[in-house]
Amino acid sequence: MTAQVFGALPAEEFPGEPPWLRAVRRLVRRRAAMIGLAVGLFFILLAMAAPLLAPYDPLATNWAAVRKAPSVIHLFGTDEIGRDVLARVIWGSRASLLAGLVSVMLALALGVPIGLVSGYVGGILDGTIMRLIDAMLAIPFLILAIALAAFLGPSLTNAMIAIGISQIPIFARLTRGQVLSVKHEDYVEAARAVGNPQYRIVLRHILPNIVPPLLVQATLATAAAIIAEASLSFLGLGQQPPNPSWGSMLNTAKNFMTQAPWMAIWPGLAIFSLVLSLNLFGDGLRDALDPRRE
Amino acid sequence: MTTFLLRRIALIVPTLFFVSLLIFGLQQLLPGDPATALAGEDRDPAVIAFLRQKYHLDQPLPVRYALWVEAVAQGDLGESIRIKRPVFDLIAEKLPVTGELALMALLVALAIGLPAGIIAAVKHGTPVDYGASMAALWGLSIPNFWLGILLILLFSVELGLLPASGFVSPAESLQQNLLTLIMPAFVLGNAIAAVMMRHTRSAMLQVLSADFVRTARAKGLPEIRVILRHALRNALIPVVTLGALEFGQLLSGAVLTEQVFAIPGFGKLIVDAVFNRDYAVVQGVVLFTAFTYILLNLFADIAYVVLNPRLRT
Lengths: 294, 313
Fold this sequence. Notes:
Strand content of chain B: under 5%
Oligomer: heterodimer
Strand content of chain A: under 5%
Largest sheet of chain B: none
Shape of chain A: elongated
Helix content of chain A: 55-70%
Radius of gyration of chain A: 22 Å
Order of helices and strands of chain B: HHHHHHHHHHHHH
Order of helices and strands of chain A: HHHHHHHHHHHHH
Distance between the termini of chain A: 11 Å
Number of strands of chain B: 0
């Protein structure tokens, strides 16, 4: 929607052009999506090059520089035990990106097969799986993640597992819906008529045709997972101190709002920029992959 | 309509069954002996033995599940290990606080989301539409706990206009109650306003190009009347049902908002329970949330049919 808003140019169609190439061309024309992609890549680069880019050790305390305001020596200031906020923001990008990617991969790895089987097989199995999915959806995403993290124990790994499990229903529902809409298409019927085994029909003929909506959902789910990880860390259920995470940095910062407001500004701005960039890219990707939105 | 209602209600039974299985299953995730974990810091063998007997941990799993469901059906959600009070009472005590916060947040969301959605649709393709859509995306991307911190920094620390945290019951002082809830309600309502704006905008865009709207315009009705009386009434149908579905978002958001503003509500109850390893409270809160969500979903579906005359056959 927003990508449209940012003025995509009218499409030029090239007959015989592969659909993916057309989608890429459409995507590249969407400025908002490209800004989103650029910011997203910036954060990936930041996370990968953290040891080179961070000006200080993110765990090194300095009692002579406790809660120092931003200056030339510490660009983002220091925290309550003298650690450099910029270094912690840079290193914190690792926890956020890791949580976003790993949990969505987990949700995809479990949700997509569940949706494929449910949609393709149908009948009682579909009904049963869907009621289970309804049950998972009945528990709000973050509440389920909090409950899982509580029982599994607080750590970044468990937070990722909890977020991943909480996102399974979204992918299972989406995949099932997509399978239902294509399973009676001519090309699927043809694959069945020539005697292809069921698994082959599902994996070779149905799955590749339902990838685009899954790709869009995965992008938006990554944004949601990053916020969820930050939320769990903010509550103390994600990355454990002293390791840096944007959410846990904000949790500490809220106790020093009058003395050191900068401690709250930068990690929050980082979460907001990364999530906004993924949402912009996801919206643009959805528009680019859907010919009706042209 | 009766068939629809019966079918819809019948679907709740298996969903509730699976919800109960999921929540009962949470306990099985505890590493090691659940009785030891439930005892928390208290490692007294007598306490552990008592808990094992009390929660039927010496029984086979299906028996334990049946006993648990039986107790839940009678309103017994267990007892808080830390405060030694029934979980149901704790939830009932905290619910009005979160309920008030959620209601105010919903009002904020409606007050911002609906007009913004209508204006964006009416001014489709103009800078106003771009601005509103961009604002909605910002609203969806900003972590509400950070927004809360920023508002505290501005309105409490810098300007000194609003209390930074705490909660005053309306019975004590209505004015103080509203002052303490303005910022949390805005923080909580912000993301829902964004979702509502997007839905209202797309529903209005669909309706504005419908034949009956064109007819209303052709009759020479003033534009404001066409938009509010003809278009909005139809566009509101999906938006109204959205309110119920946003309940989950409200509760999830409330957990974080209550944490930022130190509001002693439902969200704070579950977070405190997590840190005190008060698993019965965690389970009770999750069960209560899921049950409420299922009921609200049912009401939303019924409202959708009732509000939409075309489905009322």
